[in-house]
């Protein structure tokens, strides 16, 4: 997913001395072995690479400091080792620091901040992030932050995109009440953040009505987490893309799906589900691979008229797979284009 709100760096008006000095101070707290910030000299910060200014006042509105991904030509993923930990993703050039320096708080007009893929060495996400109230895009993914997510991120009422995915699984949420302040949020990614047993987890599913995409993959969630106090009647009315893969759901489907009529894609792969799947009328892609399903009718293939892609690989299907018949279907036509069934025990032709 690409989400950009930046124009070209302003080439005619210099940024304020205060903002230039704040950026230089921030630079000096980092190890820049790959010379990513080599253009950051002098005071004309609107001319620096990775810095974006508005077109009128010369205010810094964007910092694109994401690590550069390696464009490997090898037919397998690129891995790297930092402090004995193996990371996937092939980050070739990145910044490193012992923490995220508070000098960034001087950038009062900042709307876009991307620090993804860098190395902040297990430090905590700092509290000052919650003071950058103009932010509409915040990406701290895979930057080796750890500890508890600060609640004052909920102060960022203009935020549309928040990505706190962490490859090392060292980020923790103790209470999700802060999401109720994210009144404009459209995309939320918390993959591998530890969410099992977190207080107010239900707020993620009904307190952000603007949410279009939610990814909580490999977060330790179970049926219990989504059953307790969940207000099903208010569940994410505009959600289109939901990723609950590689969690610990088992048996029947969580009741939260009942009112998600806007869903276009649903990923439940890598769980322990084995009960019938409710029909979601607008669903285009469904991934239930690597679960415990045994009977084709539980999937309801021929009742899903609009479905374009269905992934049921690595389950326990054994019976013969037959086409639709009058009593199996209410569809006049089917949209199905891709069907993934490998890794099962299907019989017949």
Overview in brief:
Helix content is 6%, strand content 17%. The chain has helices spanning 17-28, 203-206, 223-227; strands at residues 51-53, 60-64, 68-69, 79-82, 85-88, 91-93, 112-114, 137-139, 147-148, 161-163, 171-172, 187-189, 213-215, 241-243, 250-251, 265-267, 272-273, 285-287, 309-311, 338-340. One of its GO terms (cellular component) is membrane.
What can you tell me about this protein's structure?
The radius of gyration is 23 Å and the shape is elongated. The model is unreliable at 1-5, 7-12 and 70-89 (pLDDT under 50). 6% of the residues lie in helices and 17% in strands. The protein starts with 16 loop residues before the first helix and ends in a 9-residue tail after the last strand. It is built from three helices and 20 strands. It is mostly beta strands and 349 residues long. The strands form five sheets. It has a twelve-stranded mixed sheet, with no helix packed on it. The protein has a two-stranded antiparallel sheet with strand order 3-6. Strands 4-5 form a two-stranded antiparallel sheet.
């Amino acid at each position: 997913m690409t989400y950009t709100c930046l124009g070209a760096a302003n080439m005619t008006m210099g940024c304020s001395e205060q903002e230039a000095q704040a950026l230089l101070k921030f630079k000096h707290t980092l190890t820049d072995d790959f010379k990513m910030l080599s253009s950051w000299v002098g005071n004309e910060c609107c001319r620096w690479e990775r810095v974006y200014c508005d077109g009128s006042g010369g205010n810094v509105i964007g910092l694109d400091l994401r690590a550069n991904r390696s464009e490997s030509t090898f037919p397998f993923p690129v891995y790297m080792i930092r402090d004995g930990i193996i990371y996937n993703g092939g980050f070739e050039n990145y910044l490193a620091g012992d923490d995220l320096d508070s000098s960034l708080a001087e950038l009062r007009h900042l709307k876009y901040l991307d620090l993804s893929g860098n190395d902040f060495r297990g430090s905590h996400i700092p509290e000052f992030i919650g003071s950058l109230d103009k932010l509409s895009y915040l990406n701290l993914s895979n930057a080796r932050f750890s500890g508890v997510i600060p609640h004052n991120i909920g102060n960022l009422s203009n935020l549309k995109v928040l990505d706190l995915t962490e490859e090392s699984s060292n980020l923790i949420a103790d209470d999700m009440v802060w999401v109720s302040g994210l009144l404009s949020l459209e995309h939320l990614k918390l993959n591998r953040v530890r969410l099992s047993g977190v207080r107010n987890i239900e707020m993620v599913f009904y307190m952000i009505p603007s949410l279009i995409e939610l990814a909580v993959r490999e977060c330790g969630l179970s049926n219990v987490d989504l059953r307790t106090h969940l207000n099903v009647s208010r569940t994410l009315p505009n959600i289109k893309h939901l990723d609950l893969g590689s969690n610990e759901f088992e048996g029947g489907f969580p009741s939260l799906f009942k009112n998600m009529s806007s869903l276009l894609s649903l990923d439940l792969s890598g769980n322990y589900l084995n009960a019938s799947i409710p029909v979601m009328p607008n669903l285009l892609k469904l991934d239930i691979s690597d679960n415990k399903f045994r009977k084709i009718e539980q999937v309801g293939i021929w009742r899903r008229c609009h479905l374009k892609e269905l992934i049921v690989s690595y389950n326990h299907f054994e019976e013969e797979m037959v086409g639709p018949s009058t009593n199996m279907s209410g569809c006049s036509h089917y949209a199905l284009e891709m069907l993934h069934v490998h890794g099962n025990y299907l019989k017949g032709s």
